[in-house]
């Protein structure tokens, strides 16, 4: 009786979605084209290809795009110079190839559908690489509480939640906190960004990360200063590995 009722409920829910799609067909969040057949029902095939290449040829450590084939142990020149504390970075795409506009939209609380669409695309396109991380938990990069109050939403929380559901790994927003105000990184010269983030984070639940592999989630990776600082405190608290998943990677100079 219970399973019969459950099946009826599922069929009804599907019927409602299909009827809704017939009456109000979904449109691509990027180019507004009507969507007929797409993986996540939010971005058309053309826009998905444009912002998220099927293969990301990048440095295994910092994710920056590399010319030619990348060896499994590759470290680019930039990250050989920097001592980054995370072990690997997995980007969806390049910042200046259509993702910059979408990321600006993501920052508005009314545009959470954009965050969800991009996180779903990240989970689909980079599924194998993200699985390599063997994460025990997913942790979003936090925002200082005053900024969070003003902004209304912390995008990495939304991204982490979607990735967690897709990878079937718990995402936890209360593990890592930003304990002091920092200046917005994009207003600073690259050389000051590591200094700006120094001691900015605190692990408030060390027992949640001890002996665990962590997948950190952020929207954009530029110098890697923010994720590196977060990875540093997570490892001090006992994390055995920290990988980073981001929507967009800017190109290193
Ligand atoms: Zn489109
Ligand atoms: Zn690198």
Q: What report would you give on this structure?
A:
The strands form two sheets. A four-stranded parallel β-sheet has the order 1-6-5-2. The chain has a two-stranded antiparallel ribbon with strand order 3-4. It is built from eleven helices and six strands. Helix 4 (95-106) packs across helix 5 and helix 5 packs parallel to helix 8 (155-167). Helices cover 43% and strands 14% of the residues. The radius of gyration is 19 Å and the shape is globular. It is α/β, with parallel strands linked by helices and 253 residues long. The mean pLDDT is 87. It has one domain: Rossmann fold (3-Layer(aba) Sandwich). The protein starts with a helix and ends with a strand. The structure holds zinc ion (2 copies).
Number of beta strands: 6
End-to-end C-alpha gap: 64 Å
Low-confidence regions: none
Going across the biggest sheet, name each strand in turn. 1-6-5-2
Helix coverage percent: 40-55%
The percent range for strand residues is 5-15%
